[in-house]
DNA sequence: AAAAATACTATATATTTATACAGTATAAAA
DNA sequence: TTTTATACTGTATAAATATATAGTATTTTT
C-alpha cells in the first residue's frame, strides 16, 4: 500500500475522529473547518486521493458518504501494552508486548494502536506517572506541544514535542529533567505516535 | 427505560444496518425506502420518538446526524460514567450517568462499579486532573491513605481518607486546598467507594 | 524536460437532506 | 372523556452538501 502524505493522514484522522466523536463521517466543509482549509475542494481532493489509495470509499451522491476501509473490529479491540524498557525498543514486535487489554476504541478521540507503559518520572508534573499506560495513536503527524513517542538514535522517549525548521525540542514535564534538543541535520529522530489518553492502575 | 414499539424497533434496526453496511447513518428518505414509508415525516417522527426515549441522538442541522446511544460492544463490561456535579449527587441513578464505556474488567485490580468524572483541582498534585475518570470500586471498607469517594452532609468529594477513632480526615493533594476534618460524633459521612484507577482523555 | 501528483483558493450549482406544516386515523393513557 | 402517543400520507422549502470548474504553485515521478 502506498504511504499517505502528511496532509492525507490529517484528513484521515479527522474522519476517524468525527466517526468516534459524533457517530458519523464529516462533510467536506467540516474537514476544511477542522484543518483550516478555505476551499471545500481542498478536502474533496484529499478524499479522492485517499479513495485512490484504497484507504476510504466515497459513496457518490450521498452526504457524509465516507467510510474507512478494512476497519478494525469496532468493539472491544485487544490492544497491546508495550513496556518502554531499554534503548530503541518501543515497537509492536511481540517480544515487547507485555500483555493485551480490551478497551472500547471509542473511549479515546482517535484510534489507539498500543499502550506505552511509562518508565521514569520525566512527565510527572503533568500527571503522567511511572507505570501509567499512555494510549498511543500511531502517526508521524503532530502539532507543536503534542505528547509524542519519539525514536531518537539511541532511545525511545515520551515527551512534549516542538519542531522549528531543523530543530526538534523534546520537553519533559519535570524541572529536574533537561529538555532534549535535536538538530535534524546531524541526528535522526522519528515520531512514532502521539499520546491521546492515559490509564492508571492503583 | 420505556419499551420500543414494533415500528420503532424496525427503524432502529434500519439505522444499525446502515451503519454496519455503509459506515454511516441513513437519511430520512432512506429509512422510508427500506421500510416502505411514503412520507419522510414517517421516518422523522419515529426518529423523534427514539430520541425522546433516549435510544438515539439527532444532531440538528446536519445530514445523517443520527447516532445510537450507549451501544454495547461484545466484550468488556459497560460501566457508567458519573459526573461529580452538584452537592450530594454521586449516585448510580440514571440521571447522573453521563455515558457508558466499555472496559476490560481485568484491567484494574478490583471490580469497577463506575467512573467518577473529576471536577476541580483538589487532587492535582497526585496526577488527578479535572475531567479525569477515576475508576471506583463500591465499598465502605477502606485503609488509611486510600483515595475515597466520601459523601458528607452537604457534598460528595474525592480525597485521601484517614480515620482515627471518631475523627475523619479528608486530605486533598493540592496545597491550595485545606484538609477537611469531620467529627463523626457531630457530623455524618459515608464512604461510597475507593479509587482503583484512572482514565484520562486528551 | 514533460507529466503527474500534491496542495491548495475561489466560485458556482444541482442535488440531497432536514425539517416544518397540514392532514387522517387508531390506540393508549390520564 | 380528553389528551397524548403512535403511525402514517402529502407537500413544501431553507439549508446542507457534494461536486464540477477554473486557477495557481510546488514537488515528485517518468
From TrEMBL, chains A, B:
GO MF: DNA binding; serine-type endopeptidase activity
Any one Pfam family match given in the protein's UniProt record, by short name: Peptidase_S24
Keyword tags: Autocatalytic cleavage, DNA damage, DNA repair, DNA replication, DNA-binding, Hydrolase, Repressor, SOS response, Transcription, Transcription regulation
Domain of life: Bacteria
Reaction catalysis annotation: Hydrolysis of Ala-|-Gly bond in repressor LexA
Domain named LexA repressor DNA-binding: residues: 1-65
BP GO terms, sorted: DNA repair; DNA replication; negative regulation of DNA-templated transcription; proteolysis; SOS response
Residues the record marks as site: Cleavage: 87-88
Residue range(s) of DNA binding per entry: 28-48
EC number, UniProt record: 3.4.21.88
InterPro entries, per the entry: LexA (IPR006200), LexA-like (IPR039418), LexA/Signal_pep-like_sf (IPR036286), LexA_DNA-bd_dom (IPR006199), LexA_repressor (IPR050077), Peptidase_S24_LexA (IPR006197), Peptidase_S24_S26A/B/C (IPR015927), WH-like_DNA-bd_sf (IPR036388)
Span of domain Peptidase S24/S26A/S26B/S26C: 80-193
Active site: 122 (for autocatalytic cleavage activity), 159 (for autocatalytic cleavage activity)
Record family assignment: Belongs to the peptidase S24 family.
Assembly and interaction partners: Homodimer.
Function: Represses a number of genes involved in the response to DNA damage (SOS response), including recA and lexA. In the presence of single-stranded DNA, RecA interacts with LexA causing an autocatalytic cleavage which disrupts the DNA-binding part of LexA, leading to derepression of the SOS regulon and eventually DNA repair.
UniProt protein name: LexA repressor
Organism: SAR86 cluster bacterium
Amino acid at each position: 500500500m502506498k504511504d499517505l502524505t502528511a496532509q492525507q493522514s490529517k484528513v484521515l484522522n479527522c474522519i476517524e475522529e468525527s466517526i468516534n466523536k459524533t457517530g458519523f463521517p464529516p462533510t467536506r466543509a467540516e474537514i476544511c473547518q477542522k484543518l483550516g482549509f478555505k476551499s471545500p475542494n481542498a478536502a474533496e481532493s484529499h478524499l479522492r486521493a485517499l479513495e485512490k489509495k484504497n484507504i476510504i470509499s466515497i459513496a457518490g451522491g450521498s452526504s457524509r458518504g465516507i467510510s474507512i476501509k478494512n476497519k478494525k473490529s469496532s468493539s472491544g479491540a485487544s490492544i497491546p501494552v508495550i513496556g518502554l524498557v531499554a534503548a530503541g525498543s518501543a515497537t509492536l514486535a511481540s517480544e515487547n508486548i507485555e500483555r493485551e487489554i480490551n478497551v472500547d476504541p471509542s473511549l479515546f478521540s482517535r484510534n489507539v494502536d498500543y499502550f506505552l507503559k511509562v518508565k521514569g518520572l520525566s512527565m510527572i508534573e503533568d500527571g503522567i506517572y511511572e507505570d501509567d499506560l499512555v494510549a498511543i495513536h500511531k502517526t508521524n503527524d503532530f502539532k507543536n506541544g503534542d505528547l509524542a513517542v519519539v525514536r531518537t538514535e539511541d532511545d525511545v522517549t515520551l515527551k512534549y514535542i516542538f519542531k522549528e525548521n531543523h530543530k526538534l525540542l523534546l520537553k519533559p514535564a519535570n524541572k529536574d529533567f533537561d529538555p532534549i534538543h535535536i538538530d535534524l541535520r546531524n541526528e535522526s529522530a522519528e515520531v512514532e505516535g502521539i499520546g491521546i489518553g492515559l490509564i492508571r492502575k492503583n
